Fold:
Amino acid sequence: MNEPSSKTDALTLLSSRASATKLADPAPPAELLDRVLAAALRAPDHGALRAFRVLVIEGAARKGFGELMAASAKRGNPALDEAGLEATRKKAERAPMILVVVCPPKAHPKVPEIEQVITAGCLAHTILLGLQAEGFGAMWRTGPAAYDPGVKEGLGLRAEDHIVGFVYVGTPAGEPPALPRPSTKDYVTRWSPR
Ligand SMILES: Cc1cc2nc3c(=O)[nH]c(=O)nc-3n(C[C@H](O)[C@H](O)[C@H](O)COP(=O)(O)O)c2cc1C
Structure:
C-alpha cells in the first residue's frame, strides 16, 4: 500500500503540470534522463507492441535538426528568405535538448494504429511530468515539420512513422505563463442510460 502522502504528491504534480515556454541550460544529466525515459516506457501499451521510439537530440546535434526544420519550412514556403530560414534554424536552439517521440506503427489484427499513437502520446506526457518532478522543464511541440516526410527521412524514420512530438527540454527560465485551466464541471459528466 502506498503511504497517503505519496498519493498526494503524485496528484499535486499532475495538477501542477505546466509547459516551460522558456528553456535554458542545463539539460537533464544522462542518468536522470534515463530514469525519466524508463518511467515513460511504462506507458499503457495494448498488446505490448512497443511501437515507440525516442530520439535524443542534444548539444551540437541540434544544428542538424535546425537544418532539417529549415529545409522543411522552405518546402512548405519556397518564398521563405534567408532571414526566415535562419529564424527557423534557431528554433532548434530554444532548448538544450530535444526529444523526438515517435510511433513506428506495427500492423496488428487487434491493436489499431490510433492506439499505438496514443501510447506514444502517453510517453510524451510522462516525459513532461517526470522532468517537472525533477526540477527540469519541457514543452511538447509539433508543427508542420512533424508531418513532413523529409524531416522523418532526415531523422532516420520511415514515412509511415508518426512524430508524436518534439519535446523541448531544459531548465525553466522564469515562471510558466498563467493559463486558464479546465475545470471538471465543464468536461466531466456523469452518464446514465436513458
Ligand atoms: C500533440 C501536441 C502538439 C503541440 N504542438 C504545439 C506547438 O507546435 N506549438 C505550441 O505552441 N504548442 C503546442 N502544443 C501545446 C503545448 O505543448 C502546451 O500544452 C500548451 O501551450 C499549453 O500549455 P500547458 O502545457 O502549460 O498546459 C502541443 C501539444 C500537444 C499535445
